[in-house]
Amino acid sequence: MILSNPKFAEHGETLAMKGLTLNCLGKKEEAYEFVRKGLRNDVKSHVCWHVYGLLQRADKKYDEAIKCYRNALKLDKDNLQILRDLSLLQIQMRDLEGYRETRYQLLQLRPTQRASWIGYAIAYHLLKDYDMALKLLEEFRQTQQVPPNKIDYEYSELILYQNQVMREADLFQESLEHIETYEKQVCDKLLVEEIKGTLEERLQIYEEISQQHPRAISPRRLPLNLVPGAKFRELMDKFLRVNFSKGCPPLFTTLKSLYYDAEKISIIQELVTNYEASLKKCDLFSPYESGEKEPPTTLLWVQYFLAQHFDKLGQYSLALDYINAAIASTPTLIELFYMKAKIYKHIGNLREAAKWMDEAQSLDTADRFVNSKCAKYMLRANMIKEAEEMCSKFTREGTSAMENLNEMQCMWFQTECISAYQRLGRYGDALKKCHEVERHFFEITDDQFDFHTYCLRKMTLRAYIDLLRLEDVLRRHAFYFRAARSAIEIYLKLYDNPLTCESKQQEINAENLSAKELKKMLSKQRRAQKKAKLEEERKYTERERQQKNQKKKKDEEEEETSDLKEELTPEKLERIENPLEEAIKFLIPLKNLVADNIDTHLLAFEIYFRKGKFLLMLQSVKRAFAIDSNNPWLHECLIKFSKSVSNHSNLPDIVSQVLSQEMQKIFVNKDVESFNEDFLKHNATSLQHLLSGAKMMYFLDKSRQEKAIAIATRLDETIRDKNVKTLIKVSEALLDGSFGNCTSQYEEYRVACHNLLPFTSAFLPAVSEVHGHGAARNLTSNSDVLANEIGNLAES
Fold first, then answer.
1. Which keywords has UniProt assigned to this entry (predicted)?
2. Which of 11, 23, 304, 557 sits a CA distance of 20 to 30 A from 17?
């Protein structure tokens, strides 16, 4: 009505408000048009600037929104609503200095409001000015009229938050006195006792425990860490007998921390094997004892323990013998099948592991934990479809398990899918999952916005501070690291070998497959394409149904439509134009938050190596060198870096000078050949280090192929890390060209590894060998799952 009047058709604030209304209706472009028009007509209106900031905030452009709010405050410096909105954005962006200033203005304008005091105190707390934060909190507490004997939840939270600030300020004595003074007014009595216990420990105030706990395990378990020899045997004997008789499945987990001590391992093994022999003979722990006989279940738990014991020691044949004996006596116990699957996983036969885990799941289909474990094992064996079907038993009906798990932010499943797709060479699908995980972390970060107001109002201050600190390091989480690392590895591979429309066909032809195998592979591809088409049609139908049936608010509908437009397409993701730029997007959070992990800097080096950024390459290797100077991957990077520097004679003088000075410190004035020889000499018993040194020997001098292969394939008694993980890395290196063409040497090595690890599917002869060649090319350097990727090599 106002704008229809010619006199007010160009009224700035009215145009801005119309734009705000249009934005709420989902008409974003029109909204921006009207708000900008209103701002042009009345640039000195705080309303126009405020509305423009609201639009920017709705689009997650927080920096731009802050600028708009500041412009609005220049025109109306005491506007409460603008100050509140500005403070929310400042804490969201962690502009703590600005947040403190804004909160001070709000306190001056509204000194009677609780949120004004609490927000100002939190600003000082986050800035680690604990004295000022405590003064503000105490001043505010004194204004609260709460009777001493009355329990008020919000007042209780204030007391506990005040105490938390004291503890963070290292005021332990004051904190103890404070919590004891207000103990009766605190609702969370358990937390009070925990705080007092922690403080008393810090202050070295110990009290004797007056009441005994005869049924507790810890008082009997903890001395086992301390006592040696005969005393250990005596205590361990009593401890084991009680738990075997009672039937305690997690007994081995309780004792696993003792397995660093060879003497204690030997004593445990002797005791338990003697139990097993005696129980079989006379149903007693010792044939020299008399008394009440043990029930049959005691022998079962002894055999279960021995299976775990020998699995831990890497004696898999014995472990399988004991677990099979236990299953033969009690074929209905889930734990036994679970353990058998675990043994096969450690052996390196993931297909068999998934089979036995599926057997365990079939014994109790309502057990979500075993269901999840079974799905995880299937994914480790690259059985993605079967894993999705397994998860569908616990997901929402009417939608695919994959979609529902993404909605629920089930990131353990998604990270395992990433690794499975990556191993299978389905890089587009893997990248889709990587971006889905990244979106989850973005959403978690964005979701904190609503709590900036809510927590101050509800006085949940301790939880609020914990939330802010968690959000600051959110992308340090293992799920993000795994997804980011896989994404970087894939983008590096796509940069080295970019996919084209014909590349998949070319890859097939390059595999040296027989006609039958090639036909089978092409048939599988056609089925996959057909399945993808059907899946796309199903998604489209589901989308149509959602748009018709859902009755939600307009802003939610707009958000949903926006998400659909940004749908991730595997084909587009794996044919990205600038893979290195995409890799850097995943790398930046790792450099900021996971700088203590050497893989972060080595991944950074691999990116900058391909971009030719020598100073950034130097920065990466120096940071990695500071963490672990003897890391085998770092050694490879150093050799490649040195060789690349020597091959580029056209670098600027200042850059060459810096590189020369810094590399001399790392190489200790040695040439690369001598540096590599010293590395091999100093790590003569580590297969991982020998492999890296041998690869670099061949990299530096192709004529030394035979010697390099001989070093990498050593399997004598002096090698200490002859396990599935390291052996498969050597096998993969023999196949991927790291040592040139060495088919005959690979076959000799496979036979030797098969003799060493006869159950490992990667080294099985005949049929498994053929498929092993192709699958080995899909191995990655992902340390979390590398030891479990062997199952891919035996796929048929």
1. Repeat, TPR repeat
2. 557
